[in-house]
Amino acid sequence: MARRRSQSKAGFSVEHHGRQIHVIKVDVPSTKNWEQWILLRSDAHHDSKHCRRDIELRHLQEAVERNAIVLDLGDCLDLMQGRGDNRASKSSLRSGLLASNYFDRVIREAAEFYTQEHNGIKLSRQFALVGQGNHESAWLKFHETCPTDNLVRAIRTSDPNSQVGAGAYGGYVHFQFDFGGGGRRSWTIRYMHGASSGGIMSMGALDAKRAASWIVDANLIAIGHTHDSMVVPLPRERFRVQNGKYFIENEDVGFVRVGTYKDEFYQTDGMGWAVERGGGPKPLRAKWIRLYPLWETSRGNGKSYSRGVLRLGWDVLDAC
Asked: Which secondary structure element, helix H or strand E, spans residue 108, and what is its range?
């Protein structure tokens, strides 16, 4: 697929190198008081009757206020109430989607939601990626049309200045920060919607080690799917050679399970699959990533001095 790049008034530009690789470039005029926020969200199930749209909307409005880059990791759409779906339930269907063109209604309503304005800025202006989840891939398999492509197309039609792109089930988001005189720094997320069923007791924590065993070039591994929420640090040892010197370095990698906006435990009158499996409620939240500048220091001649080497610090915070 040909490379596509667009510029956003939000202060970042996005290049979509196919569906799996997305490069986000940010110009940083000054490191003073600088920080870059990223909203990681997954499993919104936006068209579900059980989606907590109040929480979803609040997070997107906060993304506008923080000028955050929004990354959706799949299952943005639920799509369980279509014809022939064994999971369909009339009680779970939003009244506005009750129509023979059910799929078209879902796409149109979602696009209208994501292109509404907050403080004069459309929410869609902050989106860089909408990935594919198992709900979208199931619809593609049985109906021969891709919901992710359709949603992204509808958003970009309503908001030509949006640079959101359709992602795959998994891929990379590579950030490039140009600090001018401070040089360039990069930071990478390996995203994947998810493959396991989680686990009532482990809540999918074992997937952290599994992912780390084969994902190498990422600062953060972000996964959704199980509707769990956690942060697992994955320090690893790297052997380095620099300017003829050999050293061993500890490298911090993060593993994040993002959470969900779908409350299918308390909003179903005590019935349904989520209640019957006995797994309990799921955390209704997403994740904030905050990137900020750090200047390395070292000790020489018995005194501490600044080497003037800039690196990126980052925190993972709950978006509740």
From this structure: helix 102-114
Long-range contact set of residues 4-9: C-beta below 8 Å, sequence gap at least 24: 4/165, 6/163, 7/163, 8/125, 8/161, 8/162, 8/163, 9/125, 9/161
Per-residue pLDDT tens over the stretch 70-124: 999 999 999 999 887 877 777 778 989 989 999 999 999 999 999 999 999 999 9
Report which DSSP code applies to 63: H
**Number of H helices and number of E strands within the chain?**
6, 18
Query: 3-state class of 298 per DSSP?
Result: strand
Q: What is the mean pLDDT of residues 180-197?
A: 89
> Whole-prediction pTM value?
0.90
Order across the sheet with 12-17: list the strands: 4-7, 12-17, 21-27, 170-178, 184-192, 220-223, 254-258, 229-233
